[in-house]
Each structure stands twice: as structure tokens, then as C-alpha cells.
Amino acid sequence: MDLASKKLPIALIGILLVILVVQAVNNNSVEKLIDPSTCEIWIKSSGPTGRQYLGEFDSKCLDLKNLSP
Fold first, then answer.
1. Does the predicted TM-score (pTM) go above 0.70?
2. Do 67 and 39 share a structural domain?
3. Pair 21, 38 in one domain
4. Cα(38)–Cα(53) distance, rounded to whole angstroms?
5. Are 36 and 64 within one domain?
6. Alpha-carbon distance 38 to 35, whole Å?
7. Are residues 24 and 54 in the same domain?
8. DSSP string spanning the chain?
9. Which domain holds residue 36?
10. What is the tally of structural domains in the chain?
11. Which tens digit of pLDDT belongs to each residue from 4-31?
């Protein structure tokens, strides 16, 4: 067997693990929050209001608002 063929799978696994760790670190930095009055999803931003609305609505929140009088 060739030595390069033994090192290739180990190198590929290492690269994939690095990609997985980078994605996990980047995913945790964005926390989605829900505006209780409109049920719109927003994230914290550095803008003047501190909120960046995503144009998406939380379906559970909307269901609860529709059930309450």
C-alpha cells in the first residue's frame, strides 16, 4: 500500500472536523429573539435601535396571540 493513501483519509477527516468546529462557533453567536407585541423574529445589531428584524414571524407566538381574547 502507498503511504499517501493512508494519510489522505486522515487529512480529510481533519479538514471536516475543522469546518464543523468553525460552523458551530459561528452559529452560536447569533441569537434569535421574538418581539412579544408583533411576534416578529429579530437579532441584536449595532444599529440605532439595536434590533434587526428578519421579516419572519414565530408561528407559536402567533397561535397564542390568536387564541387569547
1. no
2. yes
3. no
4. 11
5. yes
6. 6
7. no
8. --HHHHHHHHHHHHHHHHHHHHHHHHHHT--EEE-TTT-EEEEE-SSSSSEEEEEEE-HHHHHHHHH--
9. 31-69
10. 2
11. 677 888 889 999 999 998 887 776 666 7
